[in-house]
Amino acid sequence: MAQYYRIPLKKNEPSSKYSWEEKLIIHKNIARTKYGRLVEKEPLKDVATEPVTDYDNDIGYYGPATLGGQKFQLLFDTGSADLWVPKVSYNNGTKTKHSTFDPEKSDTFKTDNKSFSITYGTGHTSGVAATDTFEFAGFSIKDQAFGLADTVSDDFTNAPFDGILGMAFDQLSELQAPTPFQNLINNHSVSSSVFGFVLGRAEDGTNGNSELTIGGVDPKFSNNIKYNKVVNRRGFWQIALGGAQVNDKTVDVKGGEAIIDTGTTLVIIPPEDADAIHNAIPGSKKQGQNYLIPTDSKAVVAFTFGGVTYNINPADMTVDDVGNGLSVSGIQGENMPGMENTWLVGDVFLKNVFNAYDVNKSAVGFAPLE
Predict the structure, then answer these.
(1) Is 46 a catalytic residue?
(2) Could you give the CA distance from residue 62 to residue 50 in angstroms, rounded to a whole number?
(3) Quick check: keyword Hydrolase in the entry (predicted)?
(4) Structural domain of 340
(5) What is the DSSP letter of 14?
(6) Is 107 marked active-site?
(7) Are residues 223 and 208 in the same domain?
(8) 303-343, pLDDT tens digit by residue?
(9) Which candidate in 82, 162, 218, 261 is catalytic?
């Protein structure tokens, strides 16, 4: 009988370091840089769940893991494919609140000192490629490839997580190595090639129910999940988009595909599609290139995938209060490099569905949470 564990995903208080306009710039820059390096490449048993923690009012979700016997909190990111953590005395020994990796404390650490470098929009990290024993959700992976970062940009200084765990397909890996979940499949450690998320929201207190399921689907959603095949070989969880609605009325959008990314907060779409959706939301405004909606908006935006329509809770559409009864919309317009008709669908939508990712079948599945 399959084992079943839970990995919690945590939350800290929101930071007032940035204005709402600066936060939007950060969100868009991260997405632009993350997806600006699109390159066509050839593609390539137990069930466990782990609690997941969210931070800064659902900006991102992270959880615990161990590398070389040392504990870390890692951001779970289906939009990238590399694992990295900071090295002890990284950034020339600058004082840090983060957990760091000390090679001297691990008997299983190995490195050939090959360099690695990853850029995340407003942040970057670099160091050397290494391997060690990686553990999470009760699983143990020997010789897992990871980046040992001796340089981490200031953008990560206040992040509650220590590093990032990429969960896209291997061909996206800057380390050119299998992801931890792919290694679980390769090692026959899981009986299913599926992992999935429940991403709660801080506003209604469901963030405490966030979890990552590894090696299967949470039984609560198994009967209602509908899968969508990945539509290309670039390495992203990219699927066909069926359309969009506002208050049950179809909106004319041009987007034909969507990348599903737990590591992106917003839904970022071509500006003309963002215009069409917000024109259907009563009281919405466009300020420069940014979209604002009434803070008390009850408009229900919905997306269709595989013939099934999924609603976004109006609470998820208001991201940051800007005053005068307006809030930043959870949907923003941006022309992404090489993605003219592709949407980037992040946590604003994903908080409303159990989202599952089948590596072997190259498919993304959704089941409504309500």
Answers:
(1) no
(2) 10
(3) yes
(4) 219-368
(5) P
(6) no
(7) no
(8) 999 999 999 999 999 999 999 999 999 999 998 777 788 99
(9) 261
